[in-house]
Design brief:
The chain has 9 helices and 16 strands. The chain has helices at about 5-15, 30-40, 75-85, 125-130, 160-165, 165-170, 205-210, 230-240, 245-250, and strands at about 5, 25-30, 50, 55-60, 70-75, 90-95, 95-100, 105, 110, 115-120, 135-140, 145, 175-180, 180-190, 190-200, 255. The protein is globular. The relative contact order is 0.20.
C-alpha cells in the first residue's frame, strides 16, 4: 500500500507502545490512542484486555466508536480503582503540558494560586502514574505543550516520583510519549525526555524547535516505522473505515 498518512504512522507507534505488555488492561484515552490499542490487540499483542471506555470488558475488537458484539465482563466504576491499584494496566492519556522531566499537566495553566485557565483537573493522573505504566499522546507537538516546567503536576514523572519516595517511585513507569512529530521516552540523563524516533518527513531539528526545553538526543535518531500492509488494511478497512483518525492528525503523506 502507498500514501501512508501521518495519522497512520502515529497509530502504529501507539500500537508499538503496547506491543510487549502481554495480558494487561489497555486503557486508551482519545481517538488515536483508541485506534492504536485496538491495532495492537489485532496484531502484536492479542492478550491485551480492553473495555468500551465505560463499564464493559470487550471480547472482540469493534471499529472505532462502534458497539461491541461480544461482551466478556462488567466493570462498574468503583472497580476501576481496584484495577488501578492492582497495577496490571497501561493507560495512555493526553497532556496539555509535559516538562523535561516527564511531568504532565491537565489541571490548570498559570500560577497555582491564580490560574489563567482551568483545565480538566488532575483526574486519574496522579494515581495512574504511581501505580500503572503510563504513556502520553500529544496530537500537536509544540513549545506550548513541551515546556521547561509544568504549571501544575498532574501526572508524576520519574524524577519527581523518586524525590517523593519509594511509594511514588516503585511502580512509576512513564513508558512513551507519542506525538504527531515523534516518539519519545523519559530515559534521558537525570530522567529527562529523550527523542527516540522522528516520523517520516519530520527532521530532528523540527522536533527540537517545537520543544520548549533542551531535548535529549542521543546519536543518529531513526525514523518511526511505517505500518505494514496488514496494519494499514486493519486501520483503513476494519477499525477506522470512516477515517476519523485524520480529524485528529490532519493528512500529511508520510511515505509513498
Amino acid at each position: 500500500m502507498t500514501d501512508v498518512s501521518r495519522a497512520e504512522v502515529c497509530a502504529a507507534a501507539i500500537a508499538d507502545a503496547f506491543a510487549e505488555d502481554g495480558e494487561i488492561f489497555g486503557s486508551p484515552m482519545g481517538t488515536l490512542p483508541m485506534l492504536g490499542v485496538r491495532l495492537a490487540k489485532l496484531t502484536s499483542n492479542p492478550d491485551l484486555v480492553m473495555s468500551d471506555g465505560e463499564s464493559l470488558y470487550l471480547s472482540g475488537v469493534p471499529p472505532m466508536f462502534a458497539k461491541a458484539d461480544v461482551v466478556e465482563g462488567w466493570i462498574p466504576f468503583r472497580r476501576v480503582f481496584d484495577v488501578v491499584a492492582y497495577g496490571k494496566r497501561h493507560v495512555m492519556m493526553g497532556a496539555t503540558q509535559v516538562d523535561r522531566h516527564g511531568n504532565q499537566n491537565i489541571s490548570a495553566i498559570g500560577d497555582f494560586d491564580r490560574p489563567t485557565r482551568q483545565l480538566l483537573g488532575s483526574r486519574g493522573a496522579p494515581g495512574n502514574t504511581v501505580n500503572n505504566r503510563t504513556s502520553y499522546w500529544v496530537p500537536k507537538h509544540s513549545a506550548r505543550v513541551f515546556v521547561e516546567r509544568v504549571d501544575v503536576v498532574s501526572g508524576v514523572g520519574p524524577k519527581a516520583a523518586k524525590e517523593a519516595g519509594p511509594a511514588a517511585a516503585k511502580y512509576n513507569d512513564i513508558h512513551r510519549i507519542v506525538t504527531n512529530l515523534a516518539v519519545l521516552d523519559v530515559k534521558g540523563a537525570d530522567d529527562t525526555v529523550r527523542l527516540l524516533s522522528v516520523h517520516p518527513g519530520v527532521t530532528v531539528d523540527e522536533v527540537v524547535e517545537a520543544t520548549g526545553f533542551e531535548l535529549a538526543v542521543e546519536g543518529d535518531v531513526p525514523s518511526t516505522r511505517l505500518p505494514d500492509d496488514n496494519e494499514l488494511m486493519i486501520i483503513r478497512n476494519v477499525l477506522d473505515p470512516k477515517n476519523i483518525r485524520d480529524r485528529e492528525v490532519p493528512p500529511v503523506v508520510a511515505a509513498e
